Amino acid sequence: MKDNNAPFTAVISESGAQYMTSPNIPVTHGFTTRLGGVSGGIYSSLNLREHCGDSRENIAENYRRIASALGVSTLCFTRQVHKNTVRTVTAKDAHTLFEPVPYEADGLITEDPNCALVIFTADCIPILLWDREKNAVGALHAGWRGTAADIAGVGISRMIEEFGSEPKNIFAAIGPGIGQCCFETGCDVPEAMAKTLPNAMDFVKPGKVSGKFMVDLKGINRALLIRAGVPAENISVSDECTMCLHDKYWSHRFTGGERGSQASIIAAKGLA
Ligand SMILES: [Zn+2]
User: What's the CA-to-centroid distance between 31 and ligand 1, angstroms?
Assistant: First the structure.
């Protein structure tokens, strides 16, 4: 059994793309960073966000670098809308760069090993899932709204329905995202969390200013995964905060939204 509390590992690939891997997910996956791409300015440098001011040539080259680093060719994307829909995809849903995605969802699941799932974040919490028995995978985008809508629990339920997964066989990696150190909110966020998770206030501290709160989104998502039946020992959590580490990751808050995006990518292949 691997140590799920081990730190995530930084990988500098031959193509240049730099990404992080989780200690408990043995299939092909990566949480990309800003580093090792070709984009400039506010998109410097491994920008994977298609519809922004970055040039198509640069974005395409960044994709070539990360796809080559991970050994994947068929990517499935989704149009993220901060809700909790989790969609099953196959290689038929493969995405051609710069084509619009014909559906909205904040999570993707598949048991097609030829299909690499991609979700985007820049402070929101990325969650990658792997079922070791069914060799199925999932990728979830959990911003605060998705977290409050329990996308983590919905992702596990959908794997049970679609693949016959048992939660005890699912491993989860909660990747780099905004930490409690930086995620200051009004009372709307803790209130929304408490509706979903009765002990949500265990993950909320008072902010520096009256009426403000510091919310631990990674901790809440971990608790939601555990409530869905995933054993605590199967869950790893990145200790990296995208806002603290704004030279390494895009942070929506730090940049005021003038930014690229990192991607979290997983495919049900590559088992040694
Ligand atoms: Zn921070």
Answer: 17
Distance CA 215, CA 161 (A): 31
Q: How far is the CA of 260 from the centre of ligand 1 (A)?
A: 19
Distance 179 CA to ligand 1 centre (A): 5
Q: What are the beta bridge partners of residue 130?
A: 137, 171
pLDDT surpasses 90 at 51: no
Domains in the chain, please, with CATH?
A: 9-266 (3.60.140.10)
- Looking at the predicted structure, is the pLDDT value of residue 190 above 80? yes
Summarize the confidence of residues 96-116 as an average pLDDT.
96
Query: Does the model's pTM come out above 0.70?
Result: yes
Helix (H) or strand (E) segment spanning residue 171: strand 170-174
Cα 169 to averaged position of ligand 1 atoms, centre (Å): 32
- b/e 53-79 (16+ beta carbons within 10 angstroms → b): ebeeebbebbbebbbebbebebbbbbe
The CA 145 to ligand 1 mean position distance, Å, reads 19
Residues in contact with 210: Cβ distance below 8 Å, sequence separation at least 6, in sequence order:
none
Query: How remote is the CA of residue 239 from the centroid of ligand 1, in Å?
Result: 10
Ligand 1 centroid distance, CA of 87 (Å): 31
pLDDT in tens, 139-183: 999 999 999 999 999 999 999 999 999 999 999 999 999 999 999
